[in-house]
UniProtKB/TrEMBL annotation:
Protein family: Belongs to the membrane-bound acyltransferase family. Sterol o-acyltransferase subfamily.
Annotated membrane topology: Multi-pass membrane protein
Basic and acidic residues composition bias: residue spans: 1-15, 300-310, 353-369
Protein name from the UniProt record: O-acyltransferase
Positions with biased composition (Low complexity): 264-275
UniProt keyword Nucleotidyltransferase present: no
Keywords: Acyltransferase, Endoplasmic reticulum, Membrane, Transferase, Transmembrane, Transmembrane helix
Keyword Acyltransferase (UniProt): yes
Taxonomic superkingdom: Eukaryota
Region feature (Disordered): 1-21, 260-370
Subcellular location: Endoplasmic reticulum membrane
Signal peptide boundaries: none
Amino acid sequence: MGDATDHHKPKDNEKPNFYTKRNMAIQQVSESAEKLKSEFMEQMEVKLAAVINDVVHTMQEADAVDRYRINTSSTLSSSSSKEPGRVSRKVSVTGKLPEKVFVSRPSPLTELLRVTHFRTIHHIFIATLILIMLHTVILDLLEQNTVDLGLLRLMWAFGRPQMTLGILVALEFCGLVVLYPSFHLWAKLRHQVKPELTKMIDYIGALCFLIFLTGMMVIPGAIMWNNPLPPASGATVTMEQCRLLMKIYAFVRSNVPRVVKHTSSSPSPSQASPSKQKRQQELSSVSGKSLYPTESEEDGKERQEAEDVTKTSSSPSSSVQRRKRNGESAIFNTKKSEQEQLKSSSSSSNNVEGERTLGSDPNPSKERGAAWISWSDDKESCPSYSKYLYFYVAPTLIYKDNYPKTSYVRWDYVCWNFAQVLGCIIYANFILSRYSASYFINFGHPNHPMTVLQFCNAVFSMMLPGILGLILGFFLLLHSWHNAFAEMLCFGDRLFYKDWWNCSSFHMYYKTWNILVHDWLYTYIFKDAWEMGLAKYHKALPTILVFVISSLFHEYVLSFAFNFFFPVLLTLFGGFGLALTFVKNSDSASGNILMWLSLIAGSGILVSTYTMEFYARINCPVRIDDSAADFFTPRFWTCNAIVWN
C-alpha cells in the first residue's frame, strides 16, 4: 500500500522541474487574468463615458431652459421698470431652447419585435386577422353565396381616384416646381440688389409666400367642398396637404435666417464698388484664374471628394458600421462613433447626391448666382435642390442640410413594411364593417329611433374597436409606412415615436405619440413663440398655441374626410386633452391606467359619434337649403335620431 501511494508523488530529482512548471502555469494564468481585467476595464470605461456624456448633454439642455426662464423673468422686470408700456422681445443666445438633433437609431418597435414575447403579440394580431377573414368568408358564402372580404367597401372608401390623383399632383407640383425656384430667386435678388432695396424684396417675398400658403390651403379645400370625396380619399388628400404645408414652412423658416446672414456677411460682386471690381478683374487676369470657380473645377473637386468618400467607406470602421447595420440596429455605443457616422453621412450626401450645376458656363467671370439652382452651400445662401428634394420625401418635418444615413437598402424589409400597411388597412376595414356598421347602419332613419339605453350601449361597445383602430392607425402610419420610406431613402433616424404606451401622464403621451409632428410643433411653433417672448405673459401660452393649431388641423382632416363638421375631436383634444397636459401623476402605475382609460373611452366616443353622424347624413333627408349651414350643422341633433325620454 505504501508503494502504491508513493507512486504518484514526485521523486527527489523531479521536484525542481515540477515546481518550475507549476509556477510557470500560475504566472500564465495571472497574466491572462490581468489582461482580461484590463480589457474589461477599458470597455467599461468607454461605455461609462458614453453614459456620462449623455447625462451631461441632457443636463446641459435642461440648464439652458432654466437659464432662459431666469433671463426671461429678469428681462421682463427690467423692461417693466424702464418702459412700462413696452415689452422686450429680445432673447439672449444662452436662453434659446435646444434644437432637434438627428441620430441614427431604429424605431422602438423594431427593437422590441426582436424579443420573443413581443414578437408573439405581433403574431397574435396576425392570427386574429386570419380568423376574422375566415369568419367573413364563411358568412359571405352562407348569406350571399359570394366572397366579398370587404373589397367593395374599400373600393368605395378610396373612390374617385381621378380627382384624388389630380389634387395630389397639383400639390406636388407646387411643392417641387414652384416653391424652390421662387425661394432661390428671392435669395439671389436679395444678394444682388442694393442694400436699401433689400427690405422691399423681403416684403414682396413674404407677401408671395403668404399667398402661396393660402392657396395651398384654400384651393384643395374648395375643390373638395364642391366635389366631395369618399372618406379614405379625402383623408389621403388632406393629410398630404398638411404634410406639404409643414414641409414647406419648415424649409422656408429654416433657410430665411441663413439667406439674411449670408447677405449681410458677404456682399455680392454686383454690390462691390467699381474700383474693387476693376481690381478683381486685374487679379484674375494676372493669375489666369477666375475668382469664381468654373464648372470643371467644381466637378473636379466633387470627384476628388467622392473618391475620398469611397475610400472612407471601404475602411474597417465603415465595415464595422455595415455589420452593425445588418442587424437593423443603428445605435452607436459611443459619442465618437456618432460623430463619425454624422460626418460620413454629411460628406456622402454632399457628394453622392450630385450637387452639380445645370450646364457649364464658358465665361469664367460670370457669376454663379445666375444659375437656376444653387449647388455650392459654401458660396450660395440657398441650399441645393438635391437637399431640398431629399428633405421633401424624407420621413421628417425638420429641415437639415444633412441627415444620418444607412449604408444600403434592405428591399425585403421595405416589402414587409408595405405588406403590414396593407394588412392594417384590411384589419381596420373588417373592424368597421363588423362593429360600427352593424350598430349604426339605421341611425337617423325616421322609423328606427335610438333610445338612450341603446346609445349608451353603442358607445361602450365601440370602445374596443376604437382603441384597436387607434393602435392600427399608429402601427400603419408611424411605424410601417415611415420605416418603409426611411429604408428606401437610407434615412438613419427612425425615432418616429417613443414608448407612449408606458406613459403615466398625457403631458408625456403627447410628446411621445408622434415624434414627427411633435418636433415640428416644438421647433417652429412652441420654440419660436417662446423665444419671441410669448411666455412672458404666461408660460402656458406657447402650449395653448400649439394645441390650438394641432386641434384645428386634426379637425380639418376629419371634416373633409367625412364631408361634415362635427367638432367632437376638437372638444376632446383641444379642451380636455389640453387640460390633462397640466396634470402630473407621481405614481406611474395609476397614471398609466388613467391614461389608457382615457384613451379607450375617448376612442369609443370618437368612433361612435362620427359613425352616427355619418349614417345620419345618409338616412336623414336634408332639411337645410344652404350647403354651408348644412356642412356645419350636425344631423345628429336636427334629425331627432335619439329619443331622450
